[in-house]
Design brief:
The chain contains 12 helices and 7 strands. It has a single domain, classed as 3-Layer(aba) Sandwich (Rossmann fold), CATH 3.40.50. It has a 7-stranded mixed β-sheet with strand order 3-2-1-4-5-7-6, with helices on both faces. Mean pLDDT is 91; it is low at 261-268. Helix 3 (22-38) packs across helix 12. The chain is globular and about 50 Å long. By secondary structure, it is α/β, with parallel strands linked by helices. It has helices at 3-12, 15-18, 22-38, 54-61, 73-82, 112-115, 118-132, 146-155, 160-166, 188-198, 216-221, 224-237; strands spanning 44-48, 65-70, 87-90, 104-109, 133-144, 201-206, 249-256.
């Protein structure tokens, strides 16, 4: 994936605006809800693919020390204009020599894997996130889900026949992204395979948005009270196994064990929902 294509995309579709729209607010609030379940005072956080700093800024406001890494220069400029004291550096999720090994208690990888095509490129980012996370620390990894794209773009826009004929969608209705495309879409079995190959242990997996991307116009018509109930609903159902993968994103929360490290005893239980 050429850097220029990613830059063109985010210049045309500003990430800071997406997370301020109602479907983006659902995603943001649900993700923050799950982050708060695991974060503890004094944790050092690393936000890889920080975009315009929406999560970094929110976590800084809650008192956490956050280092941000972002690929796109425009996003960094927007970020620093709003948050001039932020510690943000330009870099690629697959290679971050400027980040020390085992330096983050929790690492966020909430965007880069959307744009890394194929297992090999995704594994580079996952293994680099694992390297920079402390032994036993957590990594929050976001993915784009296959079924949302199949339903919303391939069927809804009546393109499925041509895409099947050209092999862009295979006979199992899995999108086959090419190396020069902007997005790659996965299913749960793909995420499971990546975790295994990266040596990562799942703690939980959740849908940050559920049906919200399918319901954009309906969300915009909701009263503020009803929309608040919708956010509470999504938080409540976000880990349901029968709904994971139906939305446009999932976030895989994994533990970064290091085989050669001396590991202290860890509490591996998932914190209760508040």
């Amino acid at each position: 994936m050429a850097l220029s294509n990613i830059e063109k995309h985010y210049n045309k579709h500003p990430e800071d605006l997406r997370l301020l729209r109602r479907h983006g607010i659902v995603e943001f609030e649900t993700t923050m809800y799950h982050l708060r379940r695991f974060l503890k005072p004094g944790y050092r956080l690393l936000d890889i693919g920080a975009g315009t700093g929406r999560y970094t800024s929110a976590l800084m406001a809650e008192g956490y020390e956050v280092k941000a890494v972002e690929l796109v220069r425009r996003n960094i400029d927007v970020f620093l204009k709003r948050e001039p004291t932020a510690d943000v550096v330009q870099g690629d999720a697959r290679h971050m020599p400027f980040v020390p090994t085992a330096s983050a208690d929790v690492t966020l990888l909430l965007g880069p894997l959307y744009h890394l095509i194929g297992d090999d490129e995704k594994l580079k980012a996952l293994k680099e996130a694992k390297r920079v996370t402390k032994p036993g620390g957590l990594i929050f990894v976001a993915y784009l889900m296959n079924e949302y794209s199949i339903l919303s773009y391939c069927f809804d826009e009546d393109r499925i026949g041509g895409l099947l004929d050209r092999g862009v969608v295979d006979q199992n209705f899995h999108i086959q992204a090419q190396a020069d495309e902007l997005y790659d879409y996965v299913r749960l079995e793909d995420i499971n395979r990546l975790d295994e190959n990266a040596g990562l242990e799942r703690v939980t997996i959740f849908s940050p948005d559920g049906a919200s991307d399918y319901m954009r116009t309906r969300l915009n018509r909701m009263s503020d009270e009803t929309f608040a109930h919708f956010i509470a609903y999504q938080k409540s159902i976000s880990e349901r196994a029968d709904l994971i993968g139906a939305g446009s994103h999932v976030v895989d929360v994994v533990r970064a064990w290091h085989q050669t490290a001396h590991l202290p005893e860890q509490n591996t239980q998932v914190p209760p929902k508040s």
